[in-house]
């Protein structure tokens, strides 16, 4: 009989947590038991999973007993507080926060790119930042054929990156503006409806924000190329869900758009979307709810003989967070990377 596994979702009531529930069901993850964990203020709520109402428990010292995999998506401070306790209890933690991404002892994994990195885990595997995941899936197949020398990327990031509360805020702001009222801000520092602004994460001394530095540092770690030249500009845009990115790639030799299309057409996790006659290319509205990263408008960079331009859109909550985490959990099973102990069977 096939094995099944006990899974806990930490941060189950958030936007990524509820997406994790949907994906575990849709992908028929081999579950023996599912435990939903959140902060004390969410304790007592119930969430529906495969027609059953499951209770949400407050995270505590004892809640990781007999758990095999923890899918954590409750923020860096929560992960720092509880991940080690879950590992001590025998679980493997797949963490969606920024808490462990740049820890040299913690693998940073995108299954389509570096699945072998998971083999080195010591109890925690980090899920990269959403924009890093989406870009990595799209450009890694090209990098394997001809190593990328430099990346220049501009991101157009939806409200979903700041959570469910931010998405609701944008809706209320849009309604207020249409009604002639002043939009209120709480999740964001400025109104996002009918507006855009550079990503509001903390600025570093170099003038880059933290979101931009995540793309630089995480891409280098995932690709295993510490000297990869990369620069990023991250922008919040008035889109509810799904991020977009304009990516400029520089190679040491010319890389034809047609060759890039042929490679990406069969690349895992990628869907090529190009209709040049209709001027139709990936859009956030098309990427919403999709597992694949939509890639298109692949063209020669006219300013550089070895440059290539492409445009991509991907669902930040899905592939940019929850799906990548579930894929890592599947990778743990596939590569036999869970601790050996009595596991329930079905």
How are the elements arranged and paired?
Layout: E1 5-10, H1 15-26, E2 31-38, E3 46-49, E4 52-58, E5 69-72, H2 76-88, E6 92-95, E7 124-126, H3 130-145, E8 148-157, H4 164-178, E9 197-198, H5 210-223, E10 229-236, E11 243-251, H6 257-265, E12 270-272, H7 284-287, E13 293-300, E14 307-314, H8 318-334
Helix pairs in contact: 1-8, 3-5, 3-8
Function: Catalyzes the NADPH-dependent formation of L-aspartate-semialdehyde (L-ASA) by the reductive dephosphorylation of L-aspartyl-4-phosphate.
Binding site for phosphate: 101
Subunit structure: Homodimer.
Write up this protein.
This protein is α/β, with parallel strands linked by helices. It folds into 2 domains: 5-99 and 322-334, NAD(P)-binding Rossmann-like Domain (Rossmann fold); 132-315, Dihydrodipicolinate Reductase, domain 2, CATH 3.30.360.10. The chain has 8 helices and 14 strands. It has helices spanning 15-26, 76-88, 130-145, 164-178, 210-223, 257-265, 284-287, 318-334, and strands at residues 5-10, 31-38, 46-49, 52-58, 69-72, 92-95, 124-126, 148-157, 197-198, 229-236, 243-251, 270-272, 293-300, 307-314. A 7-stranded mixed sheet has the order 3-4-2-1-5-6-7, with helices on both faces. α1 packs across α8 and α3 packs across α8. The radius of gyration is 20 Å and the shape is globular.
């Amino acid at each position: 009989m096939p094995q099944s596994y006990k899974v806990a979702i930490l941060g189950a009531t958030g936007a990524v947590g509820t997406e994790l529930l949907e994906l575990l069901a849709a992908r028929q993850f081999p579950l023996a038991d599912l435990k939903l964990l959140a902060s004390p203020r969410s304790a007592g709520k119930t969430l529906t999973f495969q027609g059953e109402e499951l209770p949400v428990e407050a995270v505590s010292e004892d809640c990781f007993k007999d758990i095999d995999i923890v899918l954590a998506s409750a923020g860096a401070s929560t992960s720092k507080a509880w991940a080690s306790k879950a590992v001590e209890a025998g679980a493997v933690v797949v963490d969606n926060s920024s808490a462990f991404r740049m820890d040299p002892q913690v693998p940073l994994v995108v299954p389509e790119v570096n699945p072998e990195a998971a083999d080195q885990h010591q109890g925690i595997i980090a899920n990269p930042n959403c924009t890093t995941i989406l870009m990595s899936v799209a450009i890694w197949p090209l990098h394997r054929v001809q190593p990328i020398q430099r990346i220049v990327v501009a991101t157009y990031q939806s409200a979903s990156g700041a959570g469910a509360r931010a998405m609701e805020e944008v809706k209320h702001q849009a309604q207020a503006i249409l009604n002639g009222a002043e939009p209120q801000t709480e999740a964001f520092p400025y109104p996002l409806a009918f507006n855009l602004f550079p990503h509001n994460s903390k600025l570093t001394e170099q003038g880059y924000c933290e979101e931009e530095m995540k793309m630089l540092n995480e891409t280098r770690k995932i690709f295993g190329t510490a000297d990869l030249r990369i620069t990023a500009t991250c922008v919040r845009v008035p889109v509810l869900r799904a991020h977009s990115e304009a990516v400029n790639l520089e190679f040491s030799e010319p890389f034809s758009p047609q060759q890039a299309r042929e490679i990406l057409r069969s690349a895992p996790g990628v869907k090529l979307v190009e209709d040049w006659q209709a001027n139709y290319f990936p859009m956030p509205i098309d990427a919403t709810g999709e597992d694949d990263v939509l890639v298109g408008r692949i063209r020669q960079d006219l300013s550089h003989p070895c440059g290539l331009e492409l445009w991509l859109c991907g669902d930040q909550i899905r592939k940019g967070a929850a799906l990548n985490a579930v894929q890592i959990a599947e990778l743990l099973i596939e590569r036999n990377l869970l601790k050996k102990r009595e596991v329930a069977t079905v």
